[in-house]
Amino acid sequence: MPQRTFSIIKPDAVRKGYTGAILAELDRAGFRIVAAKKQSISKPQAEGFYHVHKERPFFGDLCTFMSSGPLFLMVLEKDNAIADLRKLMGATNPANAEEGTIRKKFAGSIQENAIHGSDAEETAAFEIGYWFAGYELI
Ligand code: CMP
Known about the structure:
7 helices; binds adenosine-3',5'-cyclic-monophosphate
């Protein structure tokens, strides 16, 4: 059964010109792009998206970074999409990411780590609904 997950190509990767290369990695791994949009987001929008991290020390910096320039919001689909995307992304900290992963190739730091992917079904549902309306997902 195909499963949907939510992903962001983060502002660091867009700024460095890695968008096409990351989309190619996703394509090669068998993800179908259900929906995608390039936009800049406000700091309050970033804070709402990352609300589960609001008590973390990096929360303010993270939301400033995420609102620092254009990013790509995406809904991706394939069998086992959530776990497979996490594997393809690699560890949050690129220093710990395995060879061949997107973060190993394209991320600069634990914060500016090139890509986001939902970590579970409930978070994917929240994150897709936060950024996309139903009519954009047909
Ligand atoms: P992401 O998968 O989008 O989920 C939360 C984000 O917070 C994470 O990727 C990183 O960009 C950031 N993050 C997580 N841990 C840290 C940390 N220890 N220091 C700074 N940023 C972090």
